[in-house]
Amino acid sequence: VRKELPWIPTDFDEPFMQQAHVETLKTRFEKAVDVGLCERVLVAGDPGMGKTRLAREFMSSVDFIPKYVFLADGHDDGAGPFVLFRNLLKSRYDIPPEMDPVDAGQQLFSEIVALHDAPEPEMDAHLIGFLLGMSIPGSPFAKVRSEEKEGLRFRAMQALCRVLARDARNRALLFIVDEYHLASPSSRNLISHIYRSLQGHPVWIMALARPETLEQHPELTEAEHHFDLKTLKRSEMERLVRSLLTGVESVPDDVLGRVLKTADGNPYAAYHVLLYLHEMGVIERDGDRWSVDET
């Protein structure tokens, strides 16, 4: 969560320079839902270019479409090979991240059993718990020999696909994986397995990643939709920076020019340059006024 610029009014609506991408995403998602397409979407951009905000703005634009949302960060924090999917399912079933692991496992089990229409929903729930490393009381897979794990892992992946297919028969599925390039190989392989298994269902798998990582993840280059968030044009940056200076009186052109030059087309960098100017006393408060002190 970034630190707020103190001079900006509380009702300020920061402009988003990638709005055209939002509209394109919205149109293509609507088509996928109507036709029943399982597709991958790559949003590539350097840090600070607005990948995460683009995902938020897109989600807001399709809020009217009934769907199940799976949202998580790709970083696994060393917490297991499928921690990404543990977090994605927690997002889907509204399980708080800070919930006790045993309670979280029990809620996941209860949700899957209650909603799943497979012949043996309890078995599928136990298999998914095993796959995700979630502790479910009474699980027959609490202790598994190492030579059995590979076979069980495939069964568990199939169980997860059955649960997702059931969801997809009722609503569209929207997966959003931020920092995809940090996801474990196991999680990325599972995403590919789900993509192949859910063809014919309205499913979107959106990966937010840095451009330099694409060569390491060839599955991203095969995505049906590819959006590159490039550095902003000077006119776009000037509009953004002027908006971020809302509430500051009489900003000299040379100060504006220095901000634009330093930020070099990166929206997040522009924000931090302004924050730095404030911390250095260049943008200062005098009573109820904010102004620029160039001395």
Could you characterize the architecture of this molecule?
This protein has 295 residues and is α/β, with parallel strands linked by helices. Helices cover 48% and strands 15% of the residues. It is built from eleven helices and eight strands. The strands form two sheets. A five-stranded parallel sheet has the order 2-3-4-1-5, with helices on both faces. A three-stranded mixed sheet has the order 6-8-7.
What low-confidence regions span 5 or more consecutive residues with pLDDT below 50? none
- Counting copies of identical and different chains, the oligomeric state is single chain
Which percent bin holds the helix content? 40-55%
Q: Describe the main β-sheet briefly.
A: 5 strands, parallel
Count of runs of 4 or more consecutive helical residues:
11
In short:
The chain has 295 residues and is α/β, with parallel strands linked by helices. Helix content is 48%, strand content 15%.
List keywords for this structure.
elongated; 3-stranded mixed sheet; 5-stranded parallel sheet; 8 strands; 295 residues; alpha/beta; 48% helix
Write the layout of secondary structure elements.
Layout: H1 19-35, E1 38-45, H2 51-61, E2 67-73, H3 83-92, H4 101-115, H5 121-132, H6 146-170, E3 172-178, H7 185-197, E4 203-209, H8 218-221, E5 225-229, H9 234-244, E6 248-249, H10 253-263, H11 267-279, E7 283-286, E8 289-292
Parallel strand pairs: 1-4, 1-5, 2-3, 3-4, 6-8
Antiparallel strand pairs: 7-8
Helix pairs in contact: 1-2, 4-5, 5-6, 9-11, 10-11
